[in-house]
Amino acid sequence: MKKLRTKGTVAAAIVASAAMLLSTFAIAPANAADGTCAASDQDTFNTCITSGASNITVNKTIKFNAGKALIDLGLAFGGETDLADSYGTPVEYTLDHSVTITGEGSSAILRNVIFTVPQNQTLTLAGTIVLDDINLTGTNLLGLLGLQGLLNLVGGVKGIPTAINVAGGTLNLEDTAHVAAGAKNALNQQRAIAVTAGQSIVNLNSSGEYKRSEQAGLDIQVLPGLSDSNLIVKALNDLLGALTIKRTAAYPTVWGRDAAVYSEPGVTDATINITNGIYSNQKDKEVLGKTYLNGAVSSSATVNITGGNNVKISSVKIGNGVDKNHNGSNTTGTLNLDNPKAQLDQVVENDTDAQAASTDSWALELRSSATANITAGSINDTLHTNSPKVIESEAGSKINILAGGTEAGDVKIANQSYWIREAQKSGAKFAAKVNANASVAGEDTSSYELWSSGAAKTDNTLAQLAALVKAETAGSTPAAAKLSQSTYSSENGLSAAYLEDVNADGRAVYGRHVITASGSPFEAVKNSTAGTVTLYGLPWVGKYSTDGDAPTQTSKLFAGWYTSQSAFEKEDALQASTSDERHHNWNPSDETFDGTYGQTVVVSTDKYTGSLYPHFVSDETIKVTGVQVAPGTKTGRYNLRFISGVDSYNFKSVNFHVEYAGRTLGDITSTGIYDYVVAGNANKLFPKNPYVGYEGYEQLPEQGDARYVTTGVINNMPGGVTLDITPSWTTLDGVTVSGSTYQVTLQKDGTIA
């Protein structure tokens, strides 16, 4: 060990001087006929980029501001490693023109360099280029001795703050380009890509892994009475690390000590598009002095994870700026996850330190008023198998889910598929299938509902979700609302009998479910209240019509469409107070007729273009109240008059279907509706008729909402038979509604049993 100390001291002295040296000559860059500039070292790269070259090719490793390597001085002990290099201040380039840097071959690596991309400029990294700013701590006595733990006590390691700073411009990663930045023991935040100004755009479409040679020491895993965070253990581990056992470390597409991609909390109008690749940050349990905890992708702007390529991210944090103790400045931000091959999971491929994930790291974390819109992809935690950390959110955040495809696994959270299928219309009814297993323990499944709104139909699932959410915001016209007759059962899913206040030119009908309970996989920060999780289904959108089918309600019968409820009440009052024939006669014949009569009653839903109000009455209204018998024209034969009820004059006809012993005898259709009927010496009417109370009228038994009388007559029926009578009415728009079947037994003597 004494000899090792001596060499370390000499090496530190030599490197301190060597780091100050500058190259005394430069090699002119090679320029191709197409204007491409080839860079082979720092000087030629500098010439390429400062001369305004728009395309730069790199085929070897370029170390910026690097001193003489210890291995070249014969002083390195373990081969060419991070510790064997000495680096000065990183070289920083602020682009004044757009440039594409393309790597050719496996040695195309740039080290100790920072790029800033201002507004109106674009930086594209393509080919095999690697921006490697890992472990740029500089060489010093404590570092050479492996005492990084002690180095923390005397000022710490600075490292490089960021490899690429996007300050209003555009960054593109293509092909197999990689970016990695950060020193293991640095106390300051270190990110691979930082977005620091509004209107920035980051397009990440690179893929593959980056393997680099690193030193690896002998780790003391267990010492009695000491934890692995103890300073003594850290120092001993670092000292053993000086033995420099080399290893090949795997890094994902973009890796940052604290974040692979990070947008500052105040930057809300930037866009980060991720369509390919793997993203991770170092997930050590605790770094001395560290007071922040970021996701691999941390943003207060908009993050779009789209396309169909493999995307894996170890953790995503939307609404960043909060430290590990959940303190700090909460911000907003939006995640749009629309890639069926995307995975948000603590464990990702090509991630050397994946198994050292922080105990407070979540696959998805939402802060303050952050929003996540999820239409395809998987969110899971396969690292913390006992207590998975899948999604953590705060009360003001929102998670909107719409699985738009036909496969059940379009959206999968903690290995569970979340979906409500597209609403289907059959006649006047709607239905939607539901995955009832997608729930949180203790939640109220009655919140599965069918809603309607003015959202337009679109084939893009993410855009469809945005349209549904927007249509539910306050002030939207028409207002989004639950269908009043919406029902749910785990066996049959969602169903609703009809649409209320529907514009015939197109309204959206869709399934909706608010997950109200906080619990796995939707956890709350500090066990308080989680954000709102809303599950949507694809909508049915079209011109609503009954298709000859009748809307239904429990214990109710459909009795016609009106322009509104108040319009029905107005017409109802007119019918009760006037003998004006116009309110008792409904046969418009004009071809230009708009589908309504008197601006109240909807006669034709095909022609009508306004809102529809379905009118319902008690199913008791139509029942056969009684049967009047009179002698027929033949001995032993009798004429029967069946009496039923309606609530208004607004029907095309009333029908009585008559069966005997299971065989149809016929149908009696009547277009007459009366205030009363004459029976013997009495005029009989229903109690709700406006003439109730006048002298000379007797009341029929009260039944439902019956106000007026309708009848059907059958002549010369022999005695001793039992008939089944089914009454029905046809509304003005042509929908036939049937009531219950009643049995009438005609005795041989003509009496009714």
Explain what this protein looks like in three dimensions:
By secondary structure, the chain is mainly β. The protein contains eight helices and 58 strands. The strands form eight sheets. It has a 26-stranded mixed sheet that branches. The chain has a ten-stranded parallel sheet with strand order 5-8-11-14-19-22-25-27-29-41, with no helix packed on it. A five-stranded antiparallel sheet has the order 39-47-44-46-45, with helices on one face. The longest helix is centred in the N-terminal third of the chain and has 17 residues, at 2-18. The protein is elongated and about 125 Å long. The model is unreliable at 1-28, 69-84, 138-157, 216-230, 240-244, 285-290 and 354-359 (pLDDT under 50).
Short note summarizing the structure:
This protein has 753 residues and is mainly beta. It has 8 helices and 58 strands. The strands form 8 sheets. The protein has a 26-stranded mixed beta sheet that branches. Strands 5-8-11-14-19-22-25-27-29-41 form a 10-stranded parallel beta sheet, with no helix packed on it.
| Overall helicity | under 10%
> Oligomeric state of the chains?
single chain
Q: How many distinct helices?
A: 8
Radius of gyration: 39 Å
Described by strand count, sense and barrel closure, the largest sheet is: 26 strands, mixed
Q: How many strands in all?
A: 58
Portion of residues in beta strands equals: 35-45%
Question: What structural class do the secondary elements suggest?
Answer: mainly beta
**End-to-end Cα distance:** 117 Å
Shape: elongated
What do the pLDDT scores average to?
A: 80
Uncertain regions spanning at least 5 consecutive residues: 1-28, 69-84, 138-157, 216-230, 240-244, 285-290, 354-359
